[in-house]
Each structure stands twice: as structure tokens, then as C-alpha cells.
Design brief:
332 residues; alpha/beta; Rossmann fold; 2 domains; 4-stranded parallel β-sheet; 13 strands; 14% strand; disordered N terminus; disordered C terminus
Length: 332
């Protein structure tokens, strides 16, 4: 997700009579929707995941195109037979929205990224309520789930999900707390868009690295998304490199790239990659699992007894309300 503007957002919802609820979205805009919300077009995969966690998947009438084409498809196919058989319409994505296709689905609410301003304006001009989302820290994830819970009448379930996640995060923090600053490795985070694309201070990635007991090597730069140069990276001397899931590239490519041979993390073979987008999604309550993975990379001696696969299954059961032996989702 490449977003360059800041947000300061909190949930605010007010019931107007018995049939309308007023919710403030991540743009700071008041969105009024008729209750109950029965038809939702959700063009953000992370928000879609939240709706399934809430048990509100029956309200979804449209999804983003990447659900069918991306790494996450097997999981949503497991969650929803309509997705498995590709019957849910896909009127848009994070970078494009077919306005007429959305309107044809007669939605009570459309959920998109807050930066999709042209699409939002076009929908609102046609009288379609739009909830704009912007995620840049874990607190925004809690806020999004709270809002979705209010919009779908699943407030109690939303609170349960958040409390579960907070307890899990607290477990990690307690283990990391005793690690002195001198033993916290410098971490460089690499997005799949390019080797020199990263996230710095004030970002979800920065929260992730800190929670895992590491130090983001560019935390001093207040940018959600930054493009750096090799000179920057050489001066930061990262101890560990963490790669987001990349279909075309693996750690071995970085380890054998001549340009990277002088970097400490490469010399010591400490280049790692998330193998599973769905369970490591930083913009959902599943960021707890991403934190566990990075914590084990940063401090293998502290987290040596952590069973990542076992923790993943427990999380799946708690967040999605069902037990299953899911596919691993690992790269072939």
C-alpha cells in the first residue's frame, strides 16, 4: 500500500433515530448509512478480511479483483463458497473502480482506500455512501474493525476480536521487554515493488519491527513509503533484511546480488521473506502473526520454543471463528 498522507483518526458513531447510523471515516468525513447495512461492496482486501472476521460476509456483494488473482485466493475460497466458484462480482481494485459496475450492485455502502478520491467523489455524487480507509499504524486497524462492527451491527464481536489481538500482542511485548537495546538488531524492510522501497518512521512496518524487538534502520525518516538509495542502506548497516512476499524474488536473489555483498545482513545470511500474505497481513488484526515471525527472526534464542504453525492455526480459529487445516500458502 503506497500512501503519502497522514491520518489522525478515531471511531465516532452516532445513531440517528432507529434506521440511520452516522460514522466518521478515515477522511474525517461523516458517513450516514441506513441500518441495517445489507449490501457492501468492499474493494479493500484488508477490510474484506475484517468483515469475514466479524461474521458479516453475507453482507458482501462485491469484492476487489485481486481476491481472485492473488496469493490470498485459496483462503477466501475456504471462507466463502461464492469466492471459490468466482460468483462474487469484482467492480474494482485499489487502483481502479468501475463506477457503473459498483452502482449496478445497489450497495448500501462502498469501502475503498481514502486516497481514491476521484472514485469516492463519483460515487458520493450518485448518492452512494462511501467509507474511506487509511491504515498507517496498528491502532488504525483496531479503529477500522470497531467501525465495521458498528456498521454491521457486530459491535460485540469487534470488541472480542480486538481484545484477543491485544492479549496476543501483549504476550510478545512481555517477551521482548527484557531485551536490552544493544541486542535489538537493525532491520531493513523491503517491499516487493523494489529492493530500495521501504517503510520508515510512523508506519505500520515501524510498529511491526519495534514490536518484534528490532530497530527500523530508517525510523528517523517519517515516511509510510520511501524510496532510498544504496548509499543510505550502506550507512544504516542493517543486521537483518525482511522482505515482503515477492512472487519473483527470494532471499537467495539478494544474498547473491553483487551490489549487496558488503551489507552485514547479507554477509551473515540474515535475509528473510514473508511466505504468506494472508496470515501476515499488516493491515488487519493478523499483524500479530507477522510480529511473531519477525520476532523469531530477530531473537531466535528468545522465541526458540514458539510454534509458528501452531500459533497461526490458533489465530485462524480465534479470528475467523472456525477450525481448519488451511493450505500453507507458501511459494512453490
Amino acid at each position: 500500500m503506497i500512501l503519502l498522507f497522514a491520518s489522525a483518526w478515531s471511531v465516532h458513531a452516532t445513531r440517528v433515530g432507529d434506521t440511520v447510523i452516522s460514522v466518521t471515516d478515515f477522511r474525517g468525513k461523516t458517513v450516514e448509512v441506513k441500518m441495517p447495512v445489507k449490501r457492501i461492496v468492499c474493494l479493500i482486501e484488508s477490510a474484506l478480511s475484517g468483515l469475514y472476521m466479524l461474521g458479516a460476509e453475507d453482507r458482501v456483494v462485491g469484492i476487489s479483483t485481486n481476491i481472485y488473482t492473488g496469493n490470498v485466493f485459496p483462503y477466501y475460497a475456504e471462507l466463502d463458497e461464492r469466492i471459490r466458484t468466482r460468483r462474487l462480482p469484482t467492480p474494482g481494485n485499489w487502483d481502479f473502480v468501475n463506477i457503473e459496475s459498483v452502482i449496478s450492485l445497489k450497495p448500501d455502502l462502498v469501502i475503498v482506500w481514502a486516497h481514491q478520491t476521484e472514485s469516492i467523489t463519483a460515487l458520493e455524487e450518485r448518492g452512494v455512501p462511501v467509507f474511506g480507509v487509511f491504515i498507517e499504524k496498528k491502532e488504525d486497524v483496531y479503529a477500522e474493525i470497531t467501525a465495521l462492527g458498528k456498521l454491521t451491527g457486530r459491535e460485540k464481536r469487534a470488541e472480542q476480536l480486538i481484545q484477543y489481538t491485544m492479549r496476543d500482542i501483549d504476550r510478545i511485548e512481555k517477551q521482548v521487554k527484557a531485551i536490552p537495546d544493544s541486542r535489538r538488531p537493525g532491520v531493513y524492510y523491503m517491499w516487493a515493488q523494489g529492493n530500495l522501497e521501504t517503510s520508515c518512521g510512523g508506519s505500520t512496518v515501524n510498529d511491526l519491527i519495534t514490536l518484534a524487538g528490532g530497530k527500523n534502520v530508517c525510523s528517523h525518516i517519517p515516511r509510510e513509503h520511501a524510496v532510498i538509495n544504496m548509499e543510505n542502506l550502506l550507512s544504516w548497516k542493517p543486521d537483518i533484511i525482511v522482505m515482503w512476499y515477492n512472487e519473483k524474488k527470494d532471499p537467495v536473489h539478494i544474498l547473491h546480488d553483487p551490489q549487496w555483498q558488503t551489507i552485514k545482513a547479507v554477509k551473515e545470511g540474515k535475509v528473510y521473506e514473508f511466505q504468506d500474505i494472508f496470515h501476515s497481513d499488516l493491515w488487519t488484526l493478523k499483524f500479530q502473526h507477522a510480529a511473531r515471525i519477525v520476532a523469531k527472526w530477530c531473537h531466535p534464542e528468545v522465541f526458540r520454543n514458539m510454534d509458528l504453525e501452531g500459533e497461526k492455526k490458533k489465530m485462524w480459529n480465534a479470528l475467523y471463528g472456525r477450525d481448519t487445516d488451511m493450505l500453507t500458502g507458501r511459494k512453490p
